[in-house]
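Thread: Newbie trying to understand structure tokens

Hi all, I'm a second-year student working on a class project, and my supervisor (Dr. K.) asked me to get a predicted structure for one chain before our next meeting. I've only ever worked with sequences, so writing a 3D structure as a token string is new to me. If someone could post the tokens and maybe explain what I'm looking at, I'd be very grateful. Here's the chain:
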Amino acid sequence: MSDLNKTIRATDIELKDRLVAINRVTKVTKGGRHFSFSAIVVVGDEKNIVGHGLGKANEVTEAIQKAVEDAKKNLIKVSVVNETLPHSIKTKYSGAQVFIKPASAGTGVIAGGAMRAVLESAGIKNVLAKSQGSSNPHNVVKATFKALSMLRDANSIAQQRGVSLEKVYNG
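---
Reply by user tm_fold:
Sure, no problem. This is what the structure looks like when written as tokens:
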């Protein structure tokens, strides 16, 4: 297939991380309450590469570090055309549904919390996005990733079909 589905090594690129959500989890034991934290982090180079991760630990900083390490293990390459998407897409992951649509230059990133972090980390500058259903950050991030991984540009479609680029556009 195309270079979109190749695994990307985190050591080769400069990644910036964004914290999406921190959750405090309480476990009630015989000795009292025991608190731990889970963190969702999105990492990206703002040039088409993005990844997400989940970390759990007894301290917030440790949970964030674990999440960043996890995010670096599952990076994907997103097809971006002129700082926006090649086409609109609607996907669902668990209870979260996302709709992402390309926008003209100067629009900016119009998206809610968890989706905004993913789209900005991927380097998409002009996009319209809507999150429906569950607002759980875990599911919204995973639904957004599913949508971004399903995007294909005209070059990859032409390669896959074995036809010229003009034939893809003209039918």
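A couple of things are worth pointing out once you decode it. Confidence is low (pLDDT under 50) at residues 1-5. The helical segments are 60-73, 113-121, 137-150, 154-161, 165-170. Feel free to ask follow-ups in this thread.
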